[in-house]
Amino acid sequence: MSSEEPLREIAVTVNGTLHRCEVAERKNLADFLRHDLRLTGTHVGCEHGVCGACTVLVDGVSARGCLMLAVQADGCTVETVESLAASEPGPAGLGPLQQAFRDRHALQCGFCTPGILMSLTELLRDDPSPDEEAVRLVLSGHLCRCTGYQNIVAAALQAARARAGD
Amino acid sequence: MDTIVPAGQVLVPPAAPDVPERTARRMFGQPLPRIEDPALLRGEGRFLDDIPMPDPLHAAFLRSPHAHARVTRIDLSAARALPGVVAVFDADAIARELTGLRMPLGFPSATLQKDITPWVLSCTEVAFVGEAMVMVVAESRAIAEDALALIEVDFEPLPVVHDCHQALDDREPVVRSDAASNVAEQLQVGFGEVDPAFAQAPHVFAESLFVHRGAAHPMEGRGVLARYDPVEDAITVWTSTQMAHEVMHSIAAMLGMDQHNVRVVAPDVGGGFGCKYLTYPEEVAIPAAARCLRRPVKWVEDRAEHFISAIHERDQYWDVEIAVDADARILGIRGRLLHDQGAYTPQGINLPYNAATSVTGPYRVPAYRMDVIICQTNKTPVIPVRGAGYPQAAFVMERLLDRVARELALDRAEVRSRNLVPPGKMPYDKGLTNRAGVRSIVDSGDYPATQAAALARIDHAGFPARQHAARAQGRFLGLGLANAVKATSRGPFESAVIRVSPQGRIDLYTGALAMGQGLATALAQIAAEQLDVPLSMINVTCGDTGRVSLGMGGFASRQTVMAGSSVHLAAVEVRHKALKVGEQMLGVPVDGLRLHDGRVEVAAEPARFLTLGDIARKLKGAPGYSLPPGVTPGLESTGLFQTNSQAHANACHACEVEVDPGTGAVRILRYVAVHDSGRLVNPTLAEGQIHGGIVHGIGNALFEKMGYDAEAQPVTGTFADYLLPTSTEIPQIEVVFLETPSPTNPIGVKGIGEAGTIPVAPAIVSAIEDALAPWGVRVAEAPLSPVRLLELIDAAGAG
After folding, report:
1. What is the pLDDT of residue B798?
2. Is there a contact between B37 and A101 if contact means CB atoms under 8 Å apart?
3. pLDDT tens sequence across B417-457
4. CB B223 within 8 A of CB B240
5. How far apart are alpha carbons B796 and B799 in whole angstroms?
6. Which of A39, A66, A145, A158 is the mutation pick for testing B, counting most B CBs within 10 A?
7. If you measure CA to CA, which chain A residue comes closest to B271?
């Protein structure tokens, strides 16, 4: 890192752990998570806010990790894909939404998947029983080149049903 | 999998062709969950940029902002002086690290124009926007990019070739000053007596068609990480590629290293779709820098770079004619294809060759001739994207058949039925040779039944009533259909090694390459079918040249067929070997033994058994002790299935669309896809391939346009202007599988990765024309944006 790089101290809670660190002012949140905290589950697909691969939850609300600076997360709580299994681990170490993705073959290369999981986590918190249209609307903020989206929709609806049945 | 046709409805009995001695556990054909998924879902995937490499340097590339220019001066001094910059390589500097500055041609060709491949770095002349000129290596990517901004370059712009037609004009400039002409190669493919067929035909119809396919756009772009080991003079290169072995050979040749000292590893690959089936300049420059600087060097392509420096598929112009008899039976097809190759030819002529040789598709065409002109333009180079020329060819063929139907006032499905190759003619000689010089023989399939299944599923017979009712409400519905054939399983071979460890784990290595299809799961299922083990006992490693010496990688819908067959052959041999050892160690004849759950057990007395690990331990040898008689060392086998023939997958797609003639908006109401890819290893994964393929095709039909202006400047450099399909544009896709086993390989499978894409654009365009029949709109191009469709509606109305 260049000695002239302006740094700033931030305190951010990521997946339940408080991190106090110096971060380059120009570093975006996705790069901070990936490079500084080594949370490489959040992927970077376009760096211009369209593909949605880098989506994380900031204070519970979905945000593009590539469009937000790390310093803007100072004082915030961030959730990434790495947090999903820990809360309610299932058979393969997967949370219910992740398990639904596996059951319904809702991922192929898996690169876009972490961001989609975070947006759907937000949806299912806000609306525990969304219909197909609501799911497709949320997914329209994500690009997936492999799956054609259909199995992702099915997985989200299955996860919602599973939650309703709890 | 409610859309799978039940076994009773499968047209050809799915009796396995010679799958010897299948065990009790059925793995082949089961819709099992993927072994790849848990890590990917937990965020523990390991894509290129996720590899935990201590203290790497980071590279960034200065790329040409001009489509064509001479470079008169480059000043690197300010970039070199920036704190944190470790090295700056221009073409001369990188040349000192390499055996040559020009990339090797992917598929060697005697006929292609010489000196036509890209440069590793180009500092005297640039020939497309995005061409790599200078590489900066720094302590961080941010610093490397800062340094790019400090490089001063003086360009002298040169005249630009922006289009195929312009490329052919003698008065126009040449694409590169070292190019003899803008025509990289000219070729003719065909068979039969074409001109006499046209001379005697009662009907001849001509079409001029423009087919554009954008770029591959996997969600993960390219990326390379190289680590040099000075003790061994060896280099390990991780790269997001579809062909680890060929990249290894290219790096060894370009860096002047022994193959022995170069290891290429493909980590998790975030999609490929064709664009990663190439050795790129960056895949040579990064290892060269790592060796020169003795530190790991990483480069991760960003999306802005991907738009201009990863390959495209782009433009083809087809001027074609079809001759038919009074009954709409095809007598001949002829024409000319102009193919936009871009500024360089990194791979070969395979894309236009595929396109020209696949036009006839599933149809009987007695005479055919296509003149192909491969034009060079000052744009990003071109190699195949998912479908590899077949989607363009299908567009041409299906547009011609729709024209015939309209002119002869016949139903579109009927015209196709009269011309499909009937099942009784299989295997069917297409009259052409593939690039291996082997006759193209369609091995199997029931094309009329495939089409009939699609028509039944979409209720073709009931459509006129639906269309009529909708029109009464002021809504414009249309139905379209298209057939497709894809020659899959390109040879010559693929590798698979199966090795059982003394711990009883089964290691499976292959030169095939996983890009997200679920290849590891499919191959594990094929192995498990023979070895009767759960998938959890199998480790699959794809695309690591340190693990298996030979490999071809992922292209042309080949891996389930080629690697799958190799896995099958290896697994059968391991199985036989385990039983033979069991026979001797347990003292029971082989027909009294069975392989079950990773053990060779006495069938009548299951408590007496040997685990596969026990047998592997025996066969790894003990010093001075003999192996069981007649058994070779090691519980392992290498399969190298080899073929030049191809398994032909086929499909019929039918869709219903609604067109808003006021806005040009097209909504797909229903989409039915009937596919025959032979026996299915895992129907869930197969269906996923079809879904993704179709949505790629929808992108090509309606959305994806890599735009350039008249100076060959790209005008679609973000996902905000280059539109990929999103979830709200996509209907529920209804997939039906027929399973006609292929006789070309021991497991009866056919490739599936591309067939879904091929018929989509012609099916949708046919449906749009049908919906707009009241205006008589004619569509001769894809993609079709709402704005363009409005222009066509206006033009038809004015006419």
Report:
1. 60
2. yes
3. 999 999 999 999 988 887 777 889 999 999 999 999 999 99
4. yes
5. 5
6. A145
7. A109
Residue B404 lies in a domain: yes
Q: Which residue of chain B has the CA closest to A149? A: B727
A45 and A104 housed in the same domain:
no
CATH number at residue A36: 3.10.20.30
Q: How many domains, in total, are found in chain A?
A: 2
A14: containing domain: 7-81
Measured between beta carbons, which residues in chain A are less than 8 angstroms from residue B516?
108-111, 146
State the complex-level ipTM: 0.97
The pTM of this model reads: 0.96
Of A23, A57, A81, which one is at a domain's C-terminal end? A81
Q: Does A61 touch chain B (CB under 8 A)?
A: no
Q: Is residue B31 part of a domain?
A: no
Whether residue A85 lies within 8 A of chain B, CB to CB, comes out as yes
Is the domain of A77 the same as that of A95? no
Whether A46 and A75 share a structural domain: yes
Q: Which residue has the tokens 């499905």?
A: B413
Question: Which residue, B260, B249, B311, is CA-closest to B118?
Answer: B311
Do A47 and A105 lie in a common domain? no
Domain assignment present for B508: yes
Q: What type of residue sits at position B32?
A: L
Q: Is residue B111 a contact partner of residue B50, using CB atoms and an 8 Å limit?
A: no
What sign does the dihedral B71-B73-B77-B79 (CA atoms) show? negative
Cα angle B113, B116, B120; round to 5: 165
B386 touches A: beta carbon within 8 Å? no
What CATH number has the domain bearing residue B329?
3.30.365.10
Residues of the domain holding B117: 53-158+222-269+276-309
Residue B187 β-bridge partners: B372
Is A42 within 8 Å of chain B by CB?
yes
Tell me the pLDDT band of A5, cut-offs 50, 70 and 90.
confident
CB-based contact (8 Å) between B696 and chain A?
Answer: yes
Looking at B616, B642, B668, the residue that finishes a domain is B642
Judge if A87 and A70 occupy the same domain: no
Q: What order of strands is seen across the sheet that includes strand A77-79?
A: A17-24, A7-14, A77-79, A55-58, A61-64
Please identify, among B626, B642, B658, the residue that sits at the C-terminal boundary of a domain.
B642
Restricting to B residues 599-628, those with a Cβ less than 8 Å away from any Cβ of A are none
Contact call for A47 and B44, based on CB within 8 A:
no
- Predicted local distance difference test score (pLDDT) of residue B2: 33
pLDDT digits (tens, 9 = 90+) for B569-611: 999 999 999 999 999 999 999 999 999 999 999 999 999 999 9
The number of angstroms, rounded, from the C-alpha of B44 to the middle of its chain's C-alpha atoms is: 26
Residue window 113-172, chain B: list those with CB within 8 Å of chain A. 139-140, 142-143, 146
**In the numeric block, which tokens belong to residue B169?**
């004009």
> Is residue B584 located within the same domain as residue B709?
no
- Tokens found for residue B288: 């060269």
Which chain A residues contact residue B221 at CB under 8 A?
A: 45
- B39 domain residue, yes or no: no
Please tell me the distance in Å from A130's CA to the nearest CA on chain B.
15
Q: Cβ contacts (< 8 Å) between A98 and chain B: which residues?
A: 41-42
Q: What residues are paired with B234 via a beta bridge?
A: B229
